[in-house]
Amino acid sequence: MHLTRRSAGTLAIAVTLAAVSLTACSSEPASQADGRLLVATTVAPLTSITSAVAGNKARVEGIVPEGTNSHTFEPSPQVAQLLSKADLVFINGLKLEDPTKDLAERNIKDGARIVEVGTDVLPESEYIYDFSFPKKDGKPNPHLWTDPTYAKKYATVIAGALAKADPKNAAYYKKNAAAFNKQADALDAALRSDQVSVPRRVLLTYHDAYAYFSKTYGWTVIGAVQPKNFEDPAPQEIARIIDQVKAEKVPTIFGSEVFPSSVLSEIGKATGARYEDSLRDDDLPGAPGEAVHSWLGLMRYDYQTMIKGLGGKSPALDKLTITPANPDEAVYPQ
């Protein structure tokens, strides 16, 4: 076959482009190569809820490593690559992950969406500003997921966003969200049953993660040791907390798995209160792939810990089934 210089050049360009295209395809995430959605998420509880709803129809990849302070987390440049390929990016919102949100907005591909799940489910009139989140700073408490009633709303929003991005599997996502919400309802019922055994439902925590939970379930948060800058509190504030713990006769004060605190230990010694340092808010128990490594496992553990720490018993929570309806195949950075 005779080729003119123009046609030969055109053929060479076509061959080169085809080679580049094949190379690019071979480096695409498995989720895109097999037609599934690629979904990026931030904190582990949100990743867990998303995975429960997405099932095997999407690849879910978390961004914030477990055990990391999500309020101060700065995503690495490698995260931009994930965000540039994702079809959906789920963040909690409510000003929790602003650096990740900014990076997503700069790198997101055409047609992809960023969904601020917490911001979507919480009207501004219901924002809670408190110890670690003063209103003057404009950042409400973002920890909705410690309240099962809001976790259910998360699942519903996530299912709707997945269905919009992948309409052929809309019924599947809706069914998975219903299954998740059924388990959240069982957790809610077990919590309400067991918390009756607690003489006084008062919480002094290090990290202020239970404001919405407390409002829903009738607990009282008397304080959070960690101030808004996530450093240890000033000596005068420590003295005030010691006086309050003594006055309230709080039997147990709760630390955080993510925020080890010598301050809480000292408050415990000064007041006679027991210091329980294993409470978690976004660090899932167990290892990825285990049933306890889930939003449901996380919240059951925290509720058991709080109830028992304050003199109650948790038989309903102890019996609660936490095996997920779908295997959790999400990627959790460690």
Automatic annotation (TrEMBL):
GO cellular component: cell envelope
TM regions (residue ranges): none
PROSITE patterns: PROKAR_LIPOPROTEIN (PS51257)
Localization: Cell envelope
Record's keyword terms, sorted: Metal-binding, Signal, Transport
Gene Ontology biological process terms in this record: cell adhesion; metal ion transport
Signal peptide: none
Gene Ontology MF term list: metal ion binding
InterPro entries attached to this UniProt entry: AdhesinB, Bact_metal-bind_prot9, Lipoprotein_PsaA-like, ZnuA-like
PANTHER family (UniProt xref): HIGH-AFFINITY ZINC UPTAKE SYSTEM PROTEIN ZNUA-RELATED, METAL-BINDING PROTEIN HI_0362-RELATED
Entry protein name: Unannotated protein
